[in-house]
Amino acid sequence: MNTKRNNSDNKQFREFFIDEIKDIYWAEKHLSAALKKMKKAATSPTLASSFEKHIAETDGQIERLKKVFELLGKTPQAKKCDAMEGLVSEAMSVIEDTETDSFTRDAGLIIAARKAEHYEIATYETLSYYAKLLGEKEVSSELEATLKEEKKTDSLLSCLSEEEAYRQTDMKSGKQSAKQSAKQPAEQM
Question: Fewest 10 Å CB contacts: which of 7, 79, 108, 111?
Answer without folding.
Answer: 7
